[in-house]
What does this fold into?
Amino acid sequence: MHLMKDGVKGSQRPAGLRASRVADTEQRILDAAAELFTKDGYAATTLTAIAEAAGVGHRTVYVRFGTKAELLKRALDIAVAGDALPIDVRHRDWFETALSAPRPAERIDALSEGVAELMERAGALFAVARQAEPVEPLIAEAAQRGREATRDNLRAFVDKLDADRLLPGGSDPDWLAATATLAVQAETCLLLRQTHGWGTKQYRAWLRRTLGQLLGA
Amino acid sequence: MHLMKDGVKGSQRPAGLRASRVADTEQRILDAAAELFTKDGYAATTLTAIAEAAGVGHRTVYVRFGTKAELLKRALDIAVAGDALPIDVRHRDWFETALSAPRPAERIDALSEGVAELMERAGALFAVARQAEPVEPLIAEAAQRGREATRDNLRAFVDKLDADRLLPGGSDPDWLAATATLAVQAETCLLLRQTHGWGTKQYRAWLRRTLGQLLGA
It folds into this structure.
């Protein structure tokens, strides 16, 4: 659950047919990058291999995306959001529902479903980002901002339940926010996969149940 | 919370004074390694720098420990256990107490305290191991065995509560074991530090409270 879309290259694109071709080329590069990063790992994947797989020249990849780290970050941003629109997680429909549905159970359903779908799209690239974090300051910084955005989003989720008087009596919003944040961090989904071999489906069921227990819903 | 001590070098040590000198030299090397790994990161730390900091020849480090990855693994094993004795977490006093104290609250206290102390000793080296995991198969394998050992230990913790009829009515031991395992994994303590800036003291308080909520104690 990341805030994103800051500093995305190509935001001032030419209009019309040419813009459509540019977007198509970028999409092919991003698809090839996501596939190769996931298959071969971060260190073993080169910009040249990505260019070949996308059917474009090495220079095209370089001009459009710069470095391997920037290409990974852009691929991850798109996988997290589900599309290339400049709308962060906080303003996606599913998160808006999690903040405003009438009953706590509906909010938890929307949050669990949204987070699980996000991990379904982006889990493999989060695993790649974790490989890259020790060696790529750009990725380390993006990952840290992602963790903090998730923390702030879940804080908003708990505070809104509190403001709407939907928390169980005696709840501690600070503990709830910290614990719910842990449950939805990308690292947690990856860790549960490593620990139990869980796929996204099992993660979704666990997340729904855990948030339900935390919030008595 | 790792099982460990398999394949530890130097387990057949010479007796008497010479053994004491050997152990002393190894300890100096391990202390230097832990300090440099933590300060400079895994990639930037060399066996030569460790040898210099320990005041021994490069060859001594090589003969005693082999590779940089083996040295990190050995340093981490000792930090996890708290000493060089061949006793895994499962058979440490604090974990035995967590399995057998008369009341659930005492078991949770022992577990929270033991895990928090383990992370106090080993947290910095777990962070180094996470840097090394993508590039060192030995560390990746040890980390994976550690995650699985933690899972098995927490399963034993929940099953023993169940066998002793100390779980709240209607509990689901599978969900409890999975959720308690997540709470005590090394990755979780590191993630909470990254997300909230928590030190070990705040982690211990959160862990005590979270296990208490899970187990109604």
Q: What stands out?
A: The radius of gyration of chain A is 19 Å. The mean pLDDT of chain A is 91.
